[in-house]
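Box 3.1 A note on notation
Throughout this textbook, protein chains are presented in two layers. The first layer is the amino acid sequence; the second is a token string describing backbone geometry. Keep the layers aligned when reading.
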Amino acid sequence: MRKITSSSVVLLVAALALTACNKGPQEGVVATVNSKPILKADVDKIYTAQLANNPQQATPSPDQADTLRLNILHELIDEEIVEQRAAKQNLTATDAEVDAKVAEMKAPYTEEQFQAKLKASSHTLDDVRHDLRRSITIDKLLNKEINSRISVTDTDVSNYYNAHKAEFDLPENEFHLAQIQVTDRNAVQSGNLQNNKATNDDDAHKKIQAIKNRIDSGEDFGALAMNFSESPETAPNQGDMGFVRESEMKGDPTAYAAIMKLKPGQATEIIPLLDAQTKKPVGYSIYKLISKEPAGQRDLNDPRVQQAIRQQLHDSRSQLLKAAYFEMLRDQAKVQNYLAEQIFKDAAK
């Protein structure tokens, strides 16, 4: 019988260890983070959803598809690393916190509308709760580890203002506007909560007149915009168009003249909606003037200027710290990306 020496034992242990290290991933696992698996099914689900949200995008080539999946997996790995860090600090979102967010999401909709939106996005309520839990958890961790460390002093604000004074000099009047628009074009999506769409000029005129009557009776402009405006860009934001320069408004003389007569809080009469290219009527609009910003230099003492600078400095520092923080966490984590290994292996054949 062959005698087993100590050196033989060492070699045997080393061989077993090497075999364990080279052991392939479990079926359906595309990566692990500190031994916790990330599933191929999760990557595929996000991949399919991203393609569905961009129907005009051409079918990706095999290389493009692999690149997209790698990017998705990279994000899932980062999220898992952060979630594990949060769990160690007892910052994982509670059921009550998730329930509150779900209720907030449902608030603008009827139950039927909410379920329809879930179906259209190919998500279940469990999917939404999972995503919300992860999002809330990450926010709690970042608030503790990063945002709590950021301090923007009065001196910081003053120094920024003095170095960027020109940014606060408006070259012309700007108007903060909201809009409700109705079109007679079938090709345009409704963009509103009611999925309500006019199909011809007569239908569009009746619809905008009914909306105008409700505005005149005191109903909230933003709520009406969310429910009935057919602008996909502004309807979800209560019709808010942001600040529009006076020179831009002059491109539509009728709307410009009507808006110039308004005081903040007032809305125009019904105005023909013009096509941006042809300048021909394609529907109807109602505009609301939220506020007006006159041209000229904004002073540092203006609270809005101070708030804008503080927010900008805070966001800039937060972005820098997050980047550094994520790199630190990734360095400390044990990550095995099997998908990357497989793609590289296949390409090297």
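The chain has a mean pLDDT of 86. The CA atoms of residues 149 and 293 lie 34 Å apart.
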